[in-house]
Design goal:
The chain has 285 residues and is an all-alpha fold. The chain has 14 helices and no strands. The protein has one domain. The longest helix has 29 residues.
Length: 285
Amino acid sequence: MWVLFATLNPISEAFRSMFAKKASKDVDSFIISWFNNFIPTIVFTPLIFFIDMNFPPEFFIGVAGSGLINVAATLLYMRAIALGEISSVMPMLSFTPIFLLVTGPIMTGEFPNETGLIGVILVVLGSYLLNIDLKKRSLFGPFKALMKNKGTRYMFIVSFIWSLSANFDKISVSATSIWQHIVFVNLVIFVTLTIIVFVTGKYKKEGIRKARKNLLIVSLFTTGSFIFHMTALSLTYVAYVVSMKRMSGMFSVILGAVFFKEGNFRARLAGSFIMFAGVLTIVLS
């Protein structure tokens, strides 16, 4: 069952990135980041009155850690999408499983078996190939993009940040419940971003009105991503869930080519197939 939720998550994330890219034409990335958690907060907060709650120390550690880390991750994520092509920046997130091989054992004591480890490595290798421009025969193109392109660099930082927040999510979910964690982590993120948006003077009513449709769709896909991600986390290893989630890079390549006419599509198919092979390896591990 975890495979279903872990697969729906990257699909939702890929569509979120597409509509965030559209919204970036009309509003600042700070506003997109703010709206990212707008609907999730409205939808999930009322659950406080319908779920059994308990507050062990692990819950506070997990929610505070994930919430505050994801504030920074959301701001960088939306900024990266605004600056770069989604088919280029999104695959950078596939480095998260590699970081999790270090942060996971330290924070939660989890480490994949040998087959699962091979799958994680294949997902990351596929992501790397997605960024190679075969026409230029640049084997080190992804690393050059990392150094020169701000969007790519920002998303690489997000990939590391999420390797930390995923473990905090796991700590909180394991100590309480999926729904309790979702409710409070969204409140932490949304309240913090609200303060940042108004303190920095980024709130622009005219721009928000113009981009409201895309902003609301971004927020809707974020709502779905939360449900799929947290449910999958409660059922299996963090590294497996995050590796599956990184298929969003593959879906983003397709969406980027179809809706934004982003180039290098055929060359990136090889990377997509390798990522898919990695995902199958994880599923069968």
